[in-house]
Amino acid sequence: SGVFPIKKKSTNSLDVHVLVDVIAECMGSEQSELANIGEKAIRLVTETCKYILGSAERAFQIPFFDVLVDKLCGLCYERAWYTKVGGVTAIEWLINNAPLLWTIRNQQQFINA
């Protein structure tokens, strides 16, 4: 029961984990073109949420970003170097573009990754 309480699942919506998994796959890809697409996807979701909710502070309160951070930090623990680079690149983008309070709230997870 947070800012956006979870309600009954609808079959007319996209599961947040599907989008997060696709972004993580792109960011962790050996192909730099896919990593660029992953970064653009993060930017697009972020800008869309900011537009709909009115501010970056409100946008980063949605659970999507918590799930995304968990997945992207997990990339840093993978064996392949390009996967680690993708995780770090995505985390760097989030740190540079997210509200300061959100970044501070997640800083321990970022440092550990």
What can you tell me about this protein's structure?
The chain has about 110 residues and is mainly alpha-helical. Helix content is about 70%, strand content about 0%. The chain is built from 6 helices and no strands. The chain has helices at about 15-25, 30-55, 55-60, 65-75, 80-95, 100-110. The longest helix has 22 residues, at about 30-55. The protein is globular, with a radius of gyration of 14 Å. The model has no long low-confidence stretch (mean pLDDT about 90).
What are the defining features of this structure?
113 residues; mainly alpha; 72% helix
> How is the quaternary structure best described?
single chain
Q: What's the order of the H and E elements?
A: HHHHHH
Q: Given the helix and strand composition, which structural class is it? A: mainly alpha
Q: Give the N-terminus to C-terminus distance in angstroms.
A: 28 Å
- Helical proportion? over 70%
Radius of gyration of CA atoms, rounded to a whole number: 14 Å
Overall pLDDT, averaged?
90
The major sheet is characterized as: none
Low-confidence stretches: none
Task: Give the CA-based shape.
Answer: globular
**What's the count of strands?**
0
Which percent range describes the beta-strand content?
under 5%
H/I helix tally? 6
List the helices and strands and how they pair.
Elements: H1 16-27, H2 32-53, H3 56-59, H4 63-75, H5 81-97, H6 100-112
Short characterization:
The chain has 113 residues and is mainly alpha-helical. It contains six helices and no strands.
